[in-house]
Fold Iron-containing alcohol dehydrogenase.
Amino acid sequence: MYNFEYRNPVKIIFGKGSIPKVADEIPENAKILMTYGGGSIKRTGVYDQVKNALKNFDLFEFGGIEPNPHYETCMKAVELIKNEKIDFLLAVGGGSVIDATKFIAAGALYPGKDPWDFFVQRYIIEPDKAIPFGAVLTLPATGSEMNGNAVITRISTQEKLAFGSPKVLPQFSILDPECVFTLPDRQVANGIVDAFVHVMEQYLTFPVNSPLQDRFAEGILLTLVEEGPKVIANRNDYEAAANFMWSATLALNGLIATGVPQDWGTHMIGHELTAYHGIDHARTLAIVLPGIMQIKRQSKKEKILQYGERIWGITEGTDDERIDKTIAKTVDFFESMGVPCTLPEYDVPVETIAKIKERFKERESKLGENKDIGYQEVEAILKSRL
Amino acid sequence: MYNFEYRNPVKIIFGKGSIPKVADEIPENAKILMTYGGGSIKRTGVYDQVKNALKNFDLFEFGGIEPNPHYETCMKAVELIKNEKIDFLLAVGGGSVIDATKFIAAGALYPGKDPWDFFVQRYIIEPDKAIPFGAVLTLPATGSEMNGNAVITRISTQEKLAFGSPKVLPQFSILDPECVFTLPDRQVANGIVDAFVHVMEQYLTFPVNSPLQDRFAEGILLTLVEEGPKVIANRNDYEAAANFMWSATLALNGLIATGVPQDWGTHMIGHELTAYHGIDHARTLAIVLPGIMQIKRQSKKEKILQYGERIWGITEGTDDERIDKTIAKTVDFFESMGVPCTLPEYDVPVETIAKIKERFKERESKLGENKDIGYQEVEAILKSRL
């Protein structure tokens, strides 16, 4: 196990009927900006629940945050905050709304010229303060409700980039599994795949003698494999929704990353597919992950075999046969939830591979836990998904 | 799954060579009281490491905290703090030192007459402030380094009682697995049993559809079963020590308790054995747990079968046969580490059972996740361990 530091102070308020508790978590006299997305919270009643709970607060609203939230949109919220002297933010939505709110929270207090610096100069320029915020999560998927990471897309440059800081950890997140009841199939399937791949990024690496972290990771994977299909089959199965929701949060709250290497190659390559073609984030992961398993089957061999055995019960055959079966099982699982895993199924032209390759070449970035996925490997990974 | 709230802001600094980092975690100009036990930290070099790291701080010392720390001792530290205007505490030791430090931290700022109120009026009188403190953990076992609970013994009344508050969560805890290298067998074995039973208290209850929490709990149990004997066999196996240490912390940091019932009957009965006979805390748990499994085999049936299957591979026989085998395997595991599991092995006279029964009768307290362990059941549980 590697040395590590871990701290996650986010307060989780979990369970049906929890949304009205939001009023107890926000400082009296706060001037709140409630951020949200395309308005589904109005259809589902979450908007009314929150508004009603906060009727004694000074409450502003900022709707219209997109999936894969745009820098350009966030900057409008930053302006509103400065004009209205907002001092608390409340993200009501899924990972995109929460991610956007993190960027807005830090961006509003950034003394530099443009908070896009957090992304293009990541690890060099970091926020040293942010407006405090909480979240009401409506869509289990990204884990953003219990971490300090955000991914933002800048439309003008077709860039989708990430930043992270303990300054943008939510003060609290409210998780009411009944929010799952009103989600469309596509969002549930995306959420399951997203959480699943988050675990894989922290688990499917070279081994470092971390049996506890492995078992926690496998516990989340097994729960998603078991409970995910139940949620898809019956949207009103509260227990399945609750198990899915808590799994998605724990998939990316830092816990299973303690003391182990991390990959994140699937995400970095996937972001490019979203940037160029607007493919749902989770779906890009379903495309790329099998490619990484294919191309990195040697360096990840021990863990792929362990994953195949413990999650899919694959114990027979040569190592290579077991790895092939394990990749096939992973693809089957994603496809069984209606998530295709190849590029042609998303009408991605072969030319996109060259563009993405070129981008990684320019950036000179190496991905993966061994920093051995360069632009040629990116090309090979994507070609394997044609 | 039940509704729940979860927040654990303790910063964990984990790994070999981490102890000198203590200096970065304490506010400059703090007036520190370092608390410790019987002096083993002087023998192992941890004392020197801490003193050296803090040589630029104003540092006071309070040694001599006992295993099963005494109220009477803690009150001396409270007096010292008040006299010297100490504003930061640093616990250097195992669970007893950290527990004592929690009580001292809250007791020093308690406006009432006697902070023993926290124990005798638990849930009615709770600390609303405490002196901030950190910990350097030298003995993996209790999980005190990442929770807000403490157990204190009052010698004058032979009472051993618990309190808990988010006000007494450590600011940080430093976990250097190399501290395990110098522990005697007995303390390692006790630590493994203690962590194991902490998990069982939160896991071996009636089922509430919490597959993820179950798997996390099982992950800790399996890791203790695997790594514990390695630590006992080779005290310098860093990886085994690290896996044991992280398991013991996660066994009682609130995570596996989210959304599930909890028992704690083993602890409550065990505390009485320590109070009357001074038996090591962990050893009392090894005595009582098999008794609870025996007497509560009906209400805990589903979970005992699951535990037997997933931890010990027991799948054959009738339910009762499987439960018997599972209890036997649990006892075998404790005994294999040199921890006896019956009362006579600790020279506990049969009269003690009647005394303990009487005490629970007086308190009118019912234990267990179903509150169905009254004084008669306490007697039956202890008699089953003769």
Summary: Chain B touches chain A through 40 residues (CB under 8 Å). Residues 211-233 of chain B form the longest helix (23 residues). Chain B has two domains: 11-178, 185-383.
